[in-house]
Design brief:
Largest sheet: 5 strands, parallel
CATH superfamily of the largest domain: NADH:ubiquinone oxidoreductase-like, 20kDa subunit
Bound molecules: iron/sulfur cluster
Distance between the termini: 39 Å
Shape: globular
Strand order of the largest sheet: 2-1-3-7-9
Helix content: 25-40%
């Protein structure tokens, strides 16, 4: 490498680190190419903070977080992984004894853009499931509450496919920030999130002739076993995980709607078909 490198700060809040693990499994490009090589001609990224990947710990590591907003104001991209706990003054989650809420707001204030990677960072996800005792919210909601007007791009998924991160970064580096025409009403890239799983599912022919699997492991559509593919927009059938090897439905597991803003509350119980009333409440219409 390389030409110009856009500084990236990766801030981990209330999550399981699964989104980072997903990114580390990126295949084309792989994580080494992503971090060290040009991603578009003449441009790449410089990942200066990532608690799981970096060598430094303790005070030297925290100093990177604390200096960046002033030293590179308006120049760096902040990636947030995990939800932000806001209840009880934010005491449910701290980084270096400072509430995640304060750290995330401070970093976002100085950023060029925020990329919310994963459903927790995008909308609150699993940590915000009812009754949500920690007051967990997505980073977009935190910014709204704090009056911070930095653009946010949501890249949801539990975890998101690594390709969805790469696609967002390619757009950022090649064209700049995605415009409103590129985004759906949930703040996601339309190029990744604008087709229902149900429309591209290999089990759709079974659905169309009402051949429903009675048990896991049986042939047929998984709708009666709780599949939420008819209410979920994502490119999972096209991209698949582990280098395109497999994905939920091909592996025999119903889609649980993990990329959607109302996940998990409106999509659970995961293994029960929704009632008609629940389906009407969950379906957000064509996007
Ligand atoms: S398995 Fe799910 S996504 Fe696939 S056809 Fe059946 S209901 Fe639709
Ligand atoms: S198929 Fe459904 S549950 Fe599986 S990753 Fe895609 S959106 Fe999430």
């Amino acid at each position: 490498m390389r030409g110009e490198a856009r500084t990236v700060v990766w801030f981990q809040a209330a999550g399981c680190t699964g989104c980072s693990v997903s990114l580390m499994n990126a295949a084309y490009p792989d994580i080494k190419n992503l971090l060290l090589d040009e991603i578009v001609p003449g441009k790449g990224i410089a990942l200066v903070f990532h608690a799981t990947l970096m060598g430094p710990t303790g005070r030297p590591a925290l100093e990177v977080l604390e200096k960046i907003p002033a030293e590179e104001a308006g120049e760096y991209v902040l990636v947030v992984e995990g939800a932000i706990p806001t209840a009880a003054g934010g005491r449910y989650g701290t980084v270096g004894e400072v509430p995640m809420r304060e750290r995330a707001a401070e970093l976002a204030r100085g950023a060029l853009a925020v990329l919310a990677f994963g459903t927790c960072a995008s909308y609150g996800g699993i940590p915000s499931g009812a009754p949500n005792p920690t007051g967990a919210v997505g980073v977009g909601e935190l910014l709204r509450r704090e009056g911070i007007e930095v653009p946010v791009v949501n890249v949801p998924g539990c975890p998101p496919h690594p390709r969805w991160f790469v696609e967002t970064v390619v757009i950022l580096l090649a064209r700049g920030l995605p415009g409103p025409e590129d985004m759906d009403d949930a703040g996601r890239l339309k190029s990744v999130y604008s087709g229902l799983i149900h429309e591209h599912c290999p089990r759709r022919p079974d659905f169309d002739v009402a051949r429903f699997a009675p048990y896991f492991g049986e042939r047929g559509c998984l709708y009666e076993l709780g599949c939420k593919g008819p209410f979920t927009d994502a490119a999972c059938p096209e991209h698949a995980w582990n280098g395109g090897v497999n994905w939920c439905i091909r592996a025999g597991h119903p889609c649980i709607g993990c990329v959607e803003p109302d996940f998990p509350d409106s999509f659970s119980p995961f293994f029960r078909k929704l009632s008609l009333e629940e389906e009407k409440a969950t379906y957000r219409g064509a996007r």
